[in-house]
Design goal:
Helix content: 10-25%
Largest sheet: 4 strands, antiparallel
Radius of gyration: 23 Å
Number of strands: 18
Strand order of the largest sheet: 4-5-6-7
Distance between the termini: 38 Å
Structural class: mainly beta
Shape: globular
Order of helices and strands: HEEEHHHEEEEEEEEEEEEEEE
Length: 282
């Protein structure tokens, strides 16, 4: 069991086999039919020092779970993939670690994880920006929406999301922000595309570029620098400590449009354009 993926071949241990007919006779009742349902499973054993304690994945059908795997049915759910993403998110991982004190992931702990909903709509009923978890806050944006932060609040009757700041001048549309230290870096669709840096604590801008940087940009962090690849195949290397938009370097890395995120590797930087995949080194 891995995040988002059920592997039929185990990495360790020995293969185990089940007598299906004996199992069905012994278990009986409704539970026998669970093996054929659409289910999400999760690991019940996850060490306190694991990089991830919450590990959820779709279970194949049919499948039989031993005591180290628990599950719940998502048969008929139209939002099973969204639920899977939420359960594997940094946000619920952070929340789970606040109260977990041992290596066991119990069904009670999973059932008590907070779920919340608040109004957030865009003109085309979509949202491309990946939310960014910063401490106890969730920062995101969308088309014709401001960039804003919400904080999860336990009001005694349940969990709710309370807005703590909003920045109307630097919205995001298709580009997701990244965090370096105590600074958030993003790309706004305002002014025909502009880079910006803001304080995730207050939402106030530290700097923003003049604009006309392109339709979109994909941002990643590598070796302490922000790498920003625009859809026009321009790669900007940004010093996160700078007081203004002044790229350390700028390169043209393709002859056609680049929409995919650049991928830093030990061998160099992978760049995907419309038709080719290239490895860049400097």
């Amino acid at each position: 069991m891995q995040r988002y993926e059920f592997r039929p071949k185990a990495k360790q241990g020995v293969d185990k086999y089940i007598d299906v007919q004996a199992y069905e006779r012994q278990i009986g009742g409704e539970k026998v039919g669970h093996t054929k349902l659409s289910r999400i499973g999760y690991q019940r054993n996850a060490a306190l020092d694991n990089w991830r304690r919450l590990i959820f994945a779709p279970l194949p059908s049919p499948s039989y779970c031993f005591d180290s795997i628990s599950y719940f049915s998502v048969t008929g759910s139209k939002r099973a993939h969204a639920l899977l993403a939420l359960l594997n998110s940094q946000l619920l991982e952070w929340r789970f670690r606040l109260t977990s004190t041992n290596n066991h992931v119990s069904t009670r702990e999973i059932a008590s994880l907070p779920g919340f909903r608040f109004a957030f709509t865009t003109p085309h009923d979509q949202n491309v920006v990946t939310p960014l978890v910063v401490g106890q806050r969730l920062i995101f944006s969308g088309l014709q929406q401001s960039t804003f932060a919400v904080e999860l609040i336990d009001n005694g009757a349940g969990w709710s999301a309370q807005e703590v700041w909003s920045n109307d001048l630097l919205p995001m549309y298709m580009s997701s922000p990244v965090l370096v230290g105590d600074r958030l870096f993003g790309f706004s669709n305002m002014r025909r595309g502009q880079f910006f840096c803001l304080d995730p604590e207050t939402g106030e801008a530290i700097w923003s570029s003049e604009g006309r940087q392109g339709d979109n940009a994909a941002l990643v962090v590598a070796d302490g620098r922000v790498l920003a690849l625009t859809s026009e195949a321009e790669l900007f290397v940004i010093d996160p400590a700078g007081s203004e938009f002044h790229p350390v370097a700028r390169y043209t890395v393709a002859e056609s449009a680049t929409y995919a995120h650049p991928v830093p590797t030990a061998a160099g930087l992978l760049i995907k354009d419309n038709s080719t995949l290239a490895l860049w080194r400097w």
